[in-house]
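in:
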């Protein structure tokens, strides 16, 4: 079977993320499927993207929307068949688009055959998981807390042992100290490589290097430090690469890194380490967390957002690592709601945020619907939400003494289902997603949908232009990064430089007028891209009345990129 293509190096590529359950339903059962994606391959190709990352569509009980996998080598019947998958890979390959599959290798569903055989008493498979007895006083093996709430340990059948689950209790953590587990992981990757896949995204992969001796987190400390970014993660990734995807010179890999550090991510993504192509980190998406707590309701700290983006850009550049750049994914509420104004300035907010990440050093990821400016759903009740994390959080907020109104307001701001509502293809009641009843209710599609954007929108063409610019200009794909006016509380500004060319990127993060000083030498730069149609005239008029260097005014959520080209050689 031919491999899916990798037409460009990953540094000049753009990735489109599809949450299959919510992209397009071809059967009318209300759940997205692979044939639905096949129907939309022409649209995906029209974006100009190089790869599509698919969230898991493997068999799963669905406790964590597919991240609780019960069979890594099959297609969930609700999503289609293996023949559908092969057809999808071929259809994308024909358009020059590669496939990235989501590998969830830190844990399995408790419905997986391995766990079921362990429960039945098979010692071989019991060693696939992290099983520990209670402490002498009868308490749980450690004081760790599940990321979905509650203890991270569950009793193992009718034994006196407990199994570790850092996520839902139906997601049992695998024991990567066991060489058989590591061999199984490589075998899973190779199974899909044999079907033409050359891209892999590894879910929470920096959690696989836990110590053999599991210890309590000291009082007052974060228990995540006890199991995150352990030194063995690097060893295991190098071993996995050597046994599988490392053989693909044109392959692309990305690791999702939970609660990580710049130093660790440099190591994961530095080419000479032979681990991964790039990494996802999430610190920039925690600037609206109160004291690090997700389920809170505070405005985004924009100076902190600027600082984090710049620190990661500089740190990864200095260490030779590579960032995966994103605002949106299946686990995050829509960025337009978090960092923009979806009511008064939806188009400006969406295009400003796109400019900020697409012109940075790193590989941009576009989450389905982002390119048309989709927003969080207008839900009014916790019953509108399906996600286990949101429902657990709501219950915990009530237990803390919050009123139902307060608890719902907080969940509504942060819920993962906010980004999982069906892709809005048209203005119909089911958003053109299905002929049946959608698994998750869409809202807002009357005003925001692909059909309307194609006809009269400004966001979709802007995304297409940004994607094209990364392909065309080595400055964007390869250029060096430096922050500009880092102390400006309103404007995210930075430069990219490459072989004498210099690009200044200006993004007003506020819904009010701001201004930024232009560096020396950029007073005559051309407007490369801007999210206001009159940007050329705006900049020209400003230059005519201001001395150099000048402070350029920026309108609410305005984005302008100014390009100064190198002098041609004599």
């Amino acid at each position: 079977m031919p491999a899916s293509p990798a037409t460009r190096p990953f540094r000049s590529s753009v990735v489109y993320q599809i949450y299959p359950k919510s992209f397009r339903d071809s059967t009318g059962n209300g759940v997205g499927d692979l044939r639905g994606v096949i129907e939309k391959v022409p649209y995906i190709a029209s974006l100009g993207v190089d790869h599509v990352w698919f969230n898991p569509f493997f068999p799963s009980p669905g406790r964590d929307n597919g991240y609780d996998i019960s069979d890594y080598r099959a297609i969930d019947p609700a999503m289609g068949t293996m023949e559908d998958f092969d057809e999808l890979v071929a259809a994308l390959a024909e358009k020059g688009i590669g496939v990235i599959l989501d590998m969830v290798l830190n844990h399995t569903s408790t419905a997986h055959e391995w766990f079921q055989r362990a429960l039945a008493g098979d010692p071989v498979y019991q060693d696939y998981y992290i099983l520990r007895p209670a402490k002498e006083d009868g308490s749980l093996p450690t004081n760790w807390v599940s990321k979905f709430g509650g203890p991270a340990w569950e009793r193992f059948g009718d034994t006196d042992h407990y199994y570790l689950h850092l996520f839902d209790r139906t997601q049992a953590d695998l024991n990567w100290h066991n060489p058989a587990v590591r061999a199984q992981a490589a075998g899973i990757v190779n199974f899909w490589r044999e079907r033409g896949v050359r891209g892999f995204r590894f879910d929470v992969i920096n959690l696989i290097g836990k110590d053999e001796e599991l210890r309590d987190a000291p009082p007052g400390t974060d228990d995540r430090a006890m199991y995150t970014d352990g030194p063995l993660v690097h060893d295991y990734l190098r071993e996995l690469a050597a046994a599988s995807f490392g053989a693909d010179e044109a392959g692309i890999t990305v690791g999702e890194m939970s609660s990580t550090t710049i130093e660790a991510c440099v190591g994961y993504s530095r080419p000479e380490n032979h681990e991964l192509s790039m990494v996802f980190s999430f610190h920039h998406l925690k600037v609206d967390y109160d004291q690090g707590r997700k389920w809170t309701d505070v405005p985004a700290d924009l100076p902190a957002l600027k600082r984090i983006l710049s620190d990661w850009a500089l740190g990864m550049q200095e260490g030779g690592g590579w960032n995966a750049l994103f605002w949106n994914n299946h686990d995050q509420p829509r960025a337009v709601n978090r960092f923009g104004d979806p009511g008064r300035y939806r188009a400006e907010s969406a295009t400003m945020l796109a400019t900020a990440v697409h012109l940075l050093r790193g590989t941009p990821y576009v989450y389905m619907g982002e390119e048309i400016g989709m927003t969080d759903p207008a839900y009014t009740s916790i019953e509108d939400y399906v996600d286990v994390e949101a429902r657990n959080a709501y219950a915990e907020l009530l237990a803390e003494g919050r009123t139902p109104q307060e608890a719902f307001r907080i969940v509504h701001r942060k819920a993962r289902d906010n980004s999982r509502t069906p892709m809005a293809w048209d203005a119909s009641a089911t958003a053109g997603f299905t002929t049946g009843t959608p698994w998750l209710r869409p809202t807002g599609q009357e005003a925001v949908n692909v059909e309307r954007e194609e006809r009269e929108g400004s966001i979709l063409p802007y995304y297409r232009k940004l994607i094209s610019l990364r392909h065309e200009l080595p400055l964007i794909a390869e250029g060096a990064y430096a922050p500009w006016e880092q102390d400006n509380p309103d404007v995210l500004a930075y430069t990219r430089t490459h072989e004498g060319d210099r690009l200044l990127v200006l993004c007003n993060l506020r819904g009010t007028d701001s201004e930024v000083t232009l560096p020396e030498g950029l007073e005559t730069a051309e407007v490369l891209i801007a999210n206001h149609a009159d940007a050329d005239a705006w900049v020209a008029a400003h230059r005519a009345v201001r001395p150099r260097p000048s402070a350029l005014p920026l309108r609410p959520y305005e984005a302008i990129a100014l390009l100064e080209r190198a002098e041609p050689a004599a």
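note: Residues 380-420 form one domain.
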